[in-house]
Structure formats: C-alpha cells, structure tokens
Design a protein that fits this description.
221 residues; alpha/beta; six-stranded mixed sheet; 25% helix; globular
C-alpha cells in the first residue's frame, strides 16, 4: 500500500493506493484541479483509478475542488450526513476558535469567505454514525465517525494504524507551533472522545490535513 500526500491549496490531501484500488482523502481548496492532475501525472497515476473521494468534513478548504475532481475521475464522494449539504449547497461555515489564537484567526478567515467559491456537487455515499469499510475499494481500512472539529467529521483508519484525521489534529504554522489538538472545534470535548476512540482502535501515525504526519503518542500524552 502506498500513501501519497497531495497539497491542494492550504489543505494536504492524501491518495491511498492499495492492491485493489485507490481512494482520495479530502478535496482541497477551490480551483485546484490542475494542481491535482499535475500531481497525479508526476506520480504516474491514472485519475480513473480513483474510485472514492472521502471528505473528512465540510469546510471550504477540504471540499473546494471535490466536485471538479469527481468529474475528472468518475469517483464517488463519501461524506457524513450532517454536512453533505455543505457541499451540495456550497455552504461555508467556520467553526469557533477554542484558543485565543483560534478566535483571532477565525475572524480573519471569516473576512475572506465572500471571495471563496465552492462548486456544488452531489454526495454519492452518505456516511452515518457507524464505521464504513473500505475493503470494497481495495483499501484495508475503514471510515470512522470522529465528531468534534465539526459535527460531521470523519477519519480514515487503516489496518496499519495510519489515521487520516482532517482537522481533528493540526500541525502547521500559522495554525499552531507544534502538533496537537485543533484550534477550531464545535465541541472540544467530542474531539477528545473521538481521539480516545481512534487511539483505542489502534491509531499509530496521525496524518493531519495541515502539514506533516506525527506519532499518535503525541495526542495520547
């Protein structure tokens, strides 16, 4: 199995290639389909091999190019029912800050929203509050509901212990100076509960949507 990070705007998306298929985790910022196709060409990957686009949550920097990528790959989009309309209706909510810097940065980001355009797209697979196996896509892993950053946040946990968590963790300036819990969250207590589940389920390496992977023990401590 291969893991390929693909930076689409401010969001780091991930291509997961198994023996029987390939999926994409998150859809990046708007207007990044050319960067996506260029990354695939550099990796010598065929866009048509991508069968599923899993969106960890519905914020604009994670869904902005999902609809266009769906069109060029033919892949299905999977998203939690609590947030599917964010993509289908091009909504742009921002979660509240849970730190002082999170509250300040949130106000700054809110001022940019009028200039952000998210192409609407239909969600093909509506995720519920139970795990969704990825074996049908050739990937040894599953999608788990991990609410907290937003009410419909999900994570992809592979059998290897690799956990792709969207914004359930952060590891990048200007969001934070070191890896840890998010500075934005609808419910920080649910963030902690979701992390307890991921750790109990065997998460070993955390792949955040902003910057580099880090050991899950950082979160555990």
């Amino acid at each position: 199995m291969q893991i390929y990070p693909v930076k689409l705007g401010v969001c780091r998306c991930y291509l997961i290639q198994g023996e029987g298929g390939m999926i994409l985790i998150d859809g990046g910022s708007p207007k990044k389909v050319k960067a996506f196709l260029a990354a695939l060409e550099k990796l010598s990957l065929n866009p048509a091999e991508i069968k599923l686009i899993t969106l960890t949550h519905g914020h604009w920097d994670h869904i902005g190019s999902a609809g266009v990528i769906k069109n060029v790959t033919g892949a299905e989009i999977a998203m939690h029912r609590e947030e599917k309309e964010w993509l289908e209706k091009s909504l742009k909510p921002i979660p509240p800050g849970v730190t002082v810097w999170g509250r300040v940065l949130g106000r700054i980001l809110a001022m940019s929203l009028p200039w952000i355009d998210i192409p609407a797209a239909e969600v093909d697979i509506v995720l519920e509050d139970r795990e969704f196996p990825l074996s049908g896509y050739g990937i040894p892993g599953r999608i788990l509901p991990t609410p907290g950053h937003s009410r419909g946040s999900v994570s992809v946990l592979l059998e290897t212990g690799d956990a792709f968590v969207g914004d359930l963790a952060m590891n990048a300036f200007p969001l934070c100076l070191r890896p840890g819990l998010p500075i934005f969250a609808e419910d920080i207590q649910k963030v902690r509960e979701s992390w307890k589940r991921l750790l109990d389920e065997g998460a070993k390496t955390v792949y955040p949507a902003h910057w580099n992977p880090f050991p899950a023990d950082v979160i555990r401590k």
